[in-house]
Design goal:
about 100 residues; mainly alpha
Length: about 100
């Protein structure tokens, strides 16, 4: 409560990856996924960071990591490993950023 969607995204990225230096070079545009997992919708923004090291944060509810791995990759790799709903986001980001 009380957060904009961008503020929530910044908090989530910081909590889940340790990345707290994001440059929204393409503005605050975003793309929402279609509903999944009991009607949830994920909102994706595009940003750049110079931070290379990812530190997996722990879920406040379970005390366990919310994710088990992270990697930096190009669009082709991201597309290949993504679910269909996330593939749409990868294609959108590629179009926004360009090659």
């Amino acid at each position: 409560d009380g957060e904009t969607s961008l503020q929530a995204a910044l908090r989530e990225v910081r909590e889940e990856t340790g990345v707290d230096d994001l440059d929204f070079r393409w503005g605050e545009r975003y793309m929402d996924t279609g509903p999944y997992s009991h009607g949830k919708v994920a909102r994706y923004y595009i940003a750049v960071t110079e931070i290379e090291s990812i530190v997996m944060g722990l879920s406040p509810e379970t005390g366990e990591p919310e994710h088990h791995e992270a990697d930096w990759m190009d669009f082709d790799c991201a597309y290949d490993i993504s679910s269909p709903r996330v593939r749409e986001v990868v294609q959108w980001a590629r179009n926004v950023i360009g090659r």
